[in-house]
Write a structure and sequence with these properties.
Blueprint: E1 2-4, E2 9-17, H1 20-36, E3 41-47, E4 51-54, E5 71-73, E6 80-83, E7 87-93, H2 103-119, E8 126-128, E9 131-138, E10 150-162, E11 165-173, E12 193-194, H3 206-221
Parallel strand pairs: 2-3, 4-5, 10-12
Antiparallel strand pairs: 1-2, 3-7, 4-6, 7-11, 8-9, 9-10, 10-11
Length: 231
Amino acid sequence: MKQDAESMVEWIVSDGLTDYEAALDFMEARVEGIIDGTAQECVWLLEHPPLYTAGTSARAEDLIDPHRFPVYEARRGGEYTYHGPGQRVVYVMLDVGKRGRDVRAFVKDLENWIIATLDRFSVRGEIRDGRVGVWVQRPEKPTQADGQPAEDKIAALGIRLRKWVSFHGLSINVDPDLEHFDGIVPCGIKAHGVTSLVDLGLPVTMTDLDVALRQTFDAAMCGDLVVNPPA
């Protein structure tokens, strides 16, 4: 486990695969420390073994194959999500209280952080009303029923707050086994698929993504980024 404590936010990068329940225990302890002033804010970058998590809005019918991988109650916002090797999970234990006490603005900052990170690889990530996460257009695929370009999800987002401190966070698909998403309806959305940076034809490594996440973090979480400006 490697960490960088040079900034006000502690960055931790875990090698290998991190047990999900151990990650929950770490987040619980760190959040309590941030609340009582004994611990720094933290961004934790890791990978999990294959598993499904159920958010507070998860519907039983969206768990298509309940025996495929372990299923955990995540107690975060959102529906069913897959985590596994090749996907960068980013847990954000941040003080939203000192960042304006505006949950919607905080979530928007996280979305912009993902979009700015993808932009480092010339991938245009976009937000869609009524659909959680970050999406990319796939013009090489058949169009949707309404004639719009096909779109795939490349990043998921779901947080929880305790006394204005966040935990859980986001995930970005670098090179996971995309067939593993077949055991759920990701985030309850059936009409669109899932993609990854490698699936898009980009030879991006986990380390490449980590560098981009670090480079774009400060501007995104200060609300200083302008993403996807009009052409």
